[in-house]
Automatic annotation (TrEMBL):
SUPFAM superfamilies named in the record: Ribosomal protein L4
One function term, GO molecular function aspect: rRNA binding
Any one of the GO BP annotations: translation
Annotated Gene Ontology cellular component terms: ribonucleoprotein complex; ribosome
Protein family according to the UniProt entry: Belongs to the universal ribosomal protein uL4 family.
rRNA-binding listed as a keyword: yes
Keywords associated with the record: Ribonucleoprotein, Ribosomal protein, RNA-binding, rRNA-binding
InterPro entries: Ribosomal_uL4, Ribosomal_uL4-like, Ribosomal_uL4_dom_sf
Record keyword Kinase present: no
Name listed for the protein in its UniProt record: Large ribosomal subunit protein uL4
Segments for region (Disordered): 45-77
């Protein structure tokens, strides 16, 4: 697959880059992508949820009524779950939701996501750019020139500090380095912008796995 390199004005520079079929032309593995996204979302969870159970709520342990003769069920404590203010039965406790995945599976998932974007013509190449100072307006103008007005992911070999600062107020825009791309971000974008020098780094990254 061959793509033209665009400048920040959205114009063709005349240069073309051939994308490797080993990275952008593999058969997508749906299950691998599902597992990788599931792991990513699980790792975002803090797992700090907690509800008090019967032995943790404040309250008297005095027997609130006699055992027999009331016509109702037995009750030994006001802290029982069926009373207002009582403890919760099997409430949530702090836990770690993260789990491990095989490195090869994660690699297959990322290759599958990249190939899906390439197949749907959602990949564009842009020459390297930087700003002298953070300017959100300038970055928004560049994205408009590149017809990247929806959810956009910019992948670069190294992240320029001023470009990163310029993007903080753009809710649909995200920047990632080649080494930090993940399946969730790739599947959650409508346009993938690859900085020209990141293509070789991407191919080298996956060829080494």
């Amino acid at each position: 697959m061959e793509l033209s390199v665009l400048n920040i004005k959205g114009e063709d520079t005349g240069r073309k880059v051939t994308l490797s079929d080993a990275v952008f032309g593999v058969e997508p593995n749906q299950h691998a992508m599902y597992l990788d996204v599931k792991q990513y979302l699980a790792n975002q969870r803090q797992g700090t949820h907690k509800a008090k159970e019967r032995n943790e709520v404040a309250g008297s342990t005095k027997k609130i009524k006699k055992q027999k003769g009331t016509g109702g069920a037995r009750a030994g404590s006001i802290k029982a779950p069926h009373f207002v203010g009582g403890g919760r039965v099997f409430g949530p406790r702090p836990r770690n939701y993260s789990f491990k995945l095989n490195k090869k599976l994660k690699s297959v998932a990322r290759l599958s996501a990249l190939s899906l974007l390439a197949r749907d013509n959602k990949v564009a190449l842009v020459e390297s750019f930087t700003f002298e100072a953070p300017k959100t307006k300038e970055l928004r103008g560049i994205l408009n020139n590149l017809q990247a007005t929806g959810k956009t992911l910019l992948v670069a070999s190294s992240i320029d500090a001023n470009v990163l600062l310029s993007s903080r107020n753009l809710p649909k825009f995200k920047i990632s380095s080649v080494n930090n791309i993940n399946t969730y971000d790739l599947l959650n974008t409508e346009k993938l912008l690859l900085v020209e020098d990141s293509v070789n780094n991407l191919e080298n990254l996956f060829s080494a796995k």
